[in-house]
Amino acid sequence: MTEAAGNVMKFLEPAQARSLPGLRLALSVVGGPWGDAAKRIFQFKRLPFMPVAQFPGRENTELLEWTGRRNAPIAIYNDEPPRDAWLEILMLAERLAPAPALLPEYSADRALVVGIANELCGPWGLGWCRRLMLFDGPLRGAAAAVPPAVFAQMRMVYGISPEATAGATARAAAILRMMADRLRAQSRRDSPYLVGDGLTAADIYWACFSAMLSPPANDVVAMEGWVRDAYRQIGPELEDALDPCLMEHRDMVFSRHLRG
To answer: What is the pLDDT at residue 151?
Structure first.
């Protein structure tokens, strides 16, 4: 059993969890938006799961032998194949607990939710671009305490290079402006949500991925101190694009739907 610093969640080791039935969720012990979103979705749907430890920058040999993957999050339900893509995990949650639904029934709204979520979670999305930005150059402040070997391993795993990171900041800023425009359009029709009149997966993904720009309090989203410090380093271009309505929406989602 492992307990992450600054986090009350107790993790099973992969060898312990592998033989157990039910829903197991491999999560980074230092936190991260993809894992936090998966966890919040299962919790919102009242789907009990067993958290399994994944350590960034390590081999995670037991996890790799079990699931074929060494990164997180990974959802494993009974003997079904492991799922590590954000949409696969969401669809598993929707199947196991159809209500409350996080994908609208109306097809056009459903497509809009998935599209917004992909702009946050998918390749070249907000999380992807922020990760490129974070590992492009030396970490500063408390984040500089990250062991050099771990930092080098993460850069290699994520394919960090000048070519890969070119344009990441502008792309992240464009996504933030799209999100703010969307919220203002919804506000004009008296809805505080990104799509329709109720909470969807898009709202949860934004709430979780916003931590990569402005981390909420530790009792809302627990994370290692060096991660929190690194996330705050967003630069003037993203500061300009981070409309206050985005943070207001994030705080509403956590306080109204994701606390406890």
So the answer is: 64
Looking at 44, 70, 96, the residue that finishes a domain is 96
**Full DSSP string of 159-225:** T--HHHHTTHHHHHHHHHHHHHHHHHHHHHTT--SSSTTS--HHHHHHHHHGGGTS---TTTS---H
Whether residues 11 and 138 share a domain: the answer is no
Q: Does the residue 102 lie in any domain?
A: no
pLDDT, mean of residues 50-69: 94
What is the per-residue pLDDT for 36?
96
**In whole angstroms, how far apart are CA 224 and each of 7, 29, 58, 227?**
8, 9, 17, 5
Distance, in Å, from the CA atom of 147 to the CA atom of 138, rounded to the nearest integer, reads 12
Closest among 119, 125, 111, 127 to 73, alpha carbons compared? 127
- Residue matched to tokens 């989602």: 253
SS3 53: strand
Q: Report if residue 101 sits inside a domain.
A: no
Q: Assign 138 a pLDDT band (cuts: 50, 70, 90).
A: low
Instruction: Label residue 223 by pLDDT band (50, 70, 90).
Output: confident
* Domain identity same for 147 and 90: no
Query: What phi and psi, each to the nearest 5 degrees, are found at residue 164?
Result: -70, -35
**β-pair partners for 3:** 10
Q: By residue range, what is the domain housing residue 148?
A: 107-258
Residue 17: CB partners within 8 Å, gap ≥ 6? Answer: 24, 50, 52, 76
